[in-house]
Amino acid sequence: MSMIIILFKGLLSLTGTAYPLMELRMKSFFTTPKAALALAIVAVSGLSACQAPAKKTESAVAAPEPVKTQRLMRESGEGLYEMVYSTATKSLFVASAQGFKDVNGGMIYRLDPATLNVKGETHTDLKNFGMAEDDNGQLFYTTNTLDGGVSKVDARSGKVLQRLMFKGKDKDGDPIGAREVLFHKGELFIGGVADPGFISVVNAQTMTLKTRIQNAGKWVTGIIYSPLTDRVYAANGGGEILVINPHSHKIEKRLTANDGKEYLFLNLAEDPATGRLFVTDDSKAKATLVFDERSGNVIKRIEGDALGIKFNARRNEIYISQRESKKVLQLDATTYVVKNSWSFETHPNSLLVSPEGETLYVTLKQDFNKDNSTKGPDSVVRIAL
Predict the structure, then answer these.
(1) Measured distance CA(385)–CA(378) in Å, rounded
(2) Per-residue pLDDT for 290 more than 50?
């Protein structure tokens, strides 16, 4: 359990179960391994931008007077985490773990992407965290982190079609957490929150385990695919970015900041046009690092707490959720200047950019009470960019 608590300290400036945690008093909160894992398995995706190697550490320039932007917020339920936009059904799906005190199972909410009204609900016997959509938007996948599994869901009916539960337990006898999920060419890449960690490669059609990529460092967190390099990148809690060949399922390289500092990497994103890879660290470094994919060097460091991160190629912008600061930042992807920011009363967690690139969706997390209940329902925010 000590390992999980350390992970939570790193992720604790977030909130949720995919890797965003909340600012809770550690002693009273992490009373059981299950409760700790429930909170430790929460974070989101991240990115940033590039230029010549920076010799000086720079922070995101403070935003000018906030721009008035159309913003819509709806309270949806407890335990909201990641989202997917189904292009086939034009629906926004939100994974929910529901409560962590005396609540079994979770939910998947189907929202109208324009109004955020709830259009459908799927009650699941397991809690839901990470999300990924297939190529045509007909199916999506959600990780059942606390139970070490992944579920396939039909986007039209909302029904759970298949599920795969991974074998193996941690030293406390609990299932090894299945955090982030990536869909790529009929396969699912799912990070295992263990030390040493691993990545499960699953046949998405049959929902069977094909192989495991071992020795992936401690706590595999973010996972993305790069169309530029035809490689999968996976971040871990040891401050490494793994470069994985998706055809051979072999780790070819391990990128590090190489600056003598400790990192607990969380979420990844990429600008394939410039070969920039972005990774957030919300605990040890409180920064976003920008890697040049060709050289493997860090070319930019943006100071400040950073949990979720998305890159919007259409608008050449970066979005960063700051759980601790209760803000979402909108940065120019070339200059890294903060163009705008949005402040909230609760904690921004997961981010999602709409397919046309003109809307940003954010899940907002409540604080936890000492008994693992929350102070209220979580929310989804729609921001017209």
Answers:
(1) 22
(2) yes
